[in-house]
């Protein structure tokens, strides 16, 4: 996998993925794009949500929505790494089996989400879920 980051101005950069997708990263708060740490947090949420939806669909669950609410703590002093990340999955659907939702979240956190597997080596990770009827 390859990517390129190009300086635009100030603390604003444009990231270009190998697949051709662009993303603005900005070290200014607030800036013209997500900060690099926000991008890492979004990557963790996106990766795990993809897993959860995929696992539930393979289990023939009628998923109509999935959101991940993320909350992270950072070290007070540089480098201001994440020290804890909490993910709360809100899964919406028809007649969703709680056992399958719980298992999907567990599998994502423990086995499939490459972003979380990388981060868990240095960060405390917690996850929870709730089910809503469509």
Question: Can you walk through the features of this model?
Answer:
Helices cover 33% and strands 40% of the residues. It is α+β, with helices and mostly antiparallel strands. It has 2 domains: 1-34, N-terminal domain of TfIIb (Single Sheet), CATH 2.20.25.10; 36-133, GMP Synthetase, Chain A, domain 3 (2-Layer Sandwich). A 3-stranded antiparallel β-sheet has the order 1-2-3, with no helix packed on it. α1 (36-58) packs across α2 (98-112). The longest helix is centred in the middle third of the chain and has 23 residues, at 36-58. It comes from Oceanisphaera psychrotolerans. Pfam families: OsmC (PF02566).
Rounded to an integer in angstroms, the radius of gyration calculated over CA atoms is: 17 Å
What overall geometry do the principal axes of the alpha carbons give? globular
Tally the beta strands.
Answer: 6
Q: Within the largest sheet, what's the order of strands?
A: 1-2-3
CA-to-CA gap between the ends?
38 Å
CATH class of the largest domain: Alpha Beta
The biggest beta sheet reads:
3 strands, antiparallel
CATH fold call of the largest domain: GMP Synthetase, Chain A, domain 3
pLDDT averaged residue by residue: 97
Number of folding domains? 2
Q: Work out the strand percent.
A: 35-45%
In CATH, the architecture of the largest domain is: 2-Layer Sandwich
Q: Secondary-structure element sequence?
A: EEEHEEHHE
Protein name: Osmotically inducible protein OsmC
Organism: Oceanisphaera psychrotolerans
């Amino acid at each position: 996998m390859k990517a390129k980051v190009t300086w635009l101005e100030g603390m604003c950069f444009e990231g270009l993925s190998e697949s051709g997708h662009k993303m603005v990263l900005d070290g200014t708060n607030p800036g013209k794009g997500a900060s690099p740490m926000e991008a890492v947090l979004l990557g963790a949420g996106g990766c795990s949500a993809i897993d959860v939806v995929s696992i539930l669909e393979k289990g023939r669950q009628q998923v109509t929505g999935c959101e991940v609410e993320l909350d992270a703590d950072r070290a007070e002093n540089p480098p201001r790494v994440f020290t804890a990340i909490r993910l709360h999955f809100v899964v919406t659907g028809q007649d969703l089996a709680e056992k399958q939702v719980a298992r999907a979240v567990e599998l994502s956190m423990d086995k499939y989400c490459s972003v979380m597997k990388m981060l868990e080596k240095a960060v405390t990770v917690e996850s929870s879920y709730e089910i809503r009827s469509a």
